[in-house]
Amino acid sequence: MIISLFAWGSAEKNVQFVSPFPAIIHSMILITGGTGFVGRTLVRQLVNNGHAVRLLLRPSQRTPNVPLGVPVEVAVTSLNDESGLRAAMRGVDVIYHLAGGENQGARTNLELIDINGTRTLAKAAASARIERLFYLSHLDADRASGFPVLKAKGIAEEHIRESGVKYTILRSSILFGPDDGFTTGLSLLINSSPGFLPLPGKGKTILQPLWIEDLVTCFLWALHDPDTINKVLEVGGSEYISLEKIVRTIMEVIKKRRLLVFWPNPYMRALTVVAENVFPRFPSTVFWLDYLAVDRLCSVDSVPRLFGLMPARFSTKLDHLRGVNWNKKLLSRIFTRHG
């Protein structure tokens, strides 16, 4: 089922970048995960650049969180329904595959969503003769990884590479921006903590935050850059920052002070598992703890070298955290179930 839809409302602030590559307007671009953190920004930029967009939505009783003020089509089907996927791909040239289960926490089924869903999507894409398939993965994705999300992403990458469809895989560092799971989640935890904030290990894990608009710009420019075809590209922010410094920076922005207490990872994991079972959308998940267990880095010149774009510095793109009623946001978040 395909429905034309215009989401009425105030559009998000437009952020546009001029691509150094010749523009090619495709007849239709299909996006999985288009209502999520990355997807909403990608949809807006694609439409602003003249592309027609179709969102792939899984069947749900909840109203989809489509980007405000952006005209899109909608196809409703499961990632594991091959015939439904082929129908959703009619008239489509390009697919951006962003859907994944990691943000749903320990209750999610990574094999069903990330592994089997990607395999079915790639198979349907090959059958539909899709020209290009883009996939958002993580740094350190590998089927041999001991971390469930990275293992699932690694296997999903293999399904895409073996499909026969021209692909571009972006392995991204940790992302941040409005309504993200990282800076917003940390802000919620800081605000709700009772004078002290537990952090895993010693807070010395080194991260490389990448602003959401920069990632999406890389995805758009890759669409017009033939040198990115059949490539797995690692992208990250312009600086290496410790988790402790990130948390202290966020505390300054939201004007909250907390004593940082460093707990062993097993204790943090146990606490998080309990919290996830009590609250359906607790700001931290066991998958986040896995991600923070070791440094997640690539070359700091990855984005300038590959795309000629200088990524924004972390501290300059935190305005989305200012002036927020964090108590109200926390209550709304933890008592809202996934659709």
Structure description:
- Helix 2 crosses helix 3 and helix 5 crosses helix 7.
- About 35% of the residues lie in helices and about 20% in strands.
- The chain has two domains: about 200 residues, NAD(P)-binding Rossmann-like Domain (Rossmann fold, 3-Layer(aba) Sandwich); about 110 residues, UDP-galactose 4-epimerase, domain 1, CATH 3.90.25.
- The chain is globular and about 55 Å long.
- It is of the alpha/beta class.
- The chain is built from eleven helices and 14 strands.
- The strands form four sheets. Strands 1-4-3-2-5-6-7-12 form an eight-stranded mixed sheet, sandwiched between helices. It has a two-stranded parallel sheet with strand order 8-11. A two-stranded parallel sheet has the order 9-14.
> How much beta, percentage-wise?
15-25%
Number of domains: 2
Top-tier CATH class of the largest domain: Alpha Beta
Low-confidence stretches: 5-18
- Report the structural category: alpha/beta
Task: Indicate the CATH topology of the largest domain.
Answer: Rossmann fold
CATH-assigned homologous superfamily of the largest domain:
NAD(P)-binding Rossmann-like Domain
Query: How many helical stretches?
Result: 11
Labels describing this entry:
339 residues; alpha/beta; Rossmann fold; UDP-galactose 4-epimerase, domain 1; 2 domains; 8-stranded mixed sheet; two-stranded parallel sheet; 11 helices; 35% helix
Question: Brief overview, please?
Answer:
The protein has 11 helices and 14 strands. By secondary structure, the chain is α/β, with parallel strands linked by helices. The protein folds into 2 domains: 2-175 and 210-235, Rossmann fold; 183-206 and 239-296 and 311-334, UDP-galactose 4-epimerase, domain 1.
